[in-house]
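Researcher: Please translate sequence to structure tokens.
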Amino acid sequence: MTDQERMEQERFELERIEKQFARCKYPVVYEEIRTEEIMLKMTDGVLLRTILLRPEVEGQVPVIVVRTCYPNNDYIYRATAMENAGYPVNADYLASCRFQPHVEVDEKLWGKRLDWYRKWVTGTNESDAYWNTGLWGLLKEIPSRVKVPVYIGEGWYDHHLGSAIETYRRLSDECKKKSRFLIGAWDHNFNVAVEGHQGEHFENDDILRAFYWFYQLLVEEKEPQGSVDTYIIGDDSREVFCSRGRITEKMS
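Model: Translation complete:
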């Protein structure tokens, strides 16, 4: 992706977010925001680049913590391995993406064998030891330990939908009672991806829905009601699974 294309994508995303918040039912409370960047030290000594966005106000305010593997929306994918090889890799990114077989790209284009990368790309079954030990094994266990309410926003056309479903499945029953899992007609970037079906309610407004959820939890201090909310492709309706049972809602 060129710098120009990246700027256009960021402008499109910003406009989409602004349009959603323009419909927000809650008024803006703080106009001025202070931005601060720090290197936050973890308990194991690792420093994480952390960006703080705080309203210009004294005292405590509700906090939302966002963890991301996309610093400044940089696009990583195969670049993850290139940038974490432990030495400078000067190979062309697109050429690396196209190289076949993938398992040999480290030696053939990057100049050195990376055993961890090879285990990564050849561990194609979730039962493989690679995905069930060390860090990956820990990540699988984390959802079952979560006690706070969780909001999961997904799309039927997102390539991460499977892992999102698995994450929700691993939450404890107690956590599910106060968590929401929303699946809409979107792809990974929350763009409407439905083809071949008519509908008037493809709204990719997950940002606003998530905001309402956090507002209720953090500002109004109301514990959310657990639910699984799914858009029904072809019927232009949604089904909600909650404590009241299964509810089908025609959208108007």
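Researcher: Any highlights?
Model: Confidence is low (pLDDT under 50) at residues 73-77.
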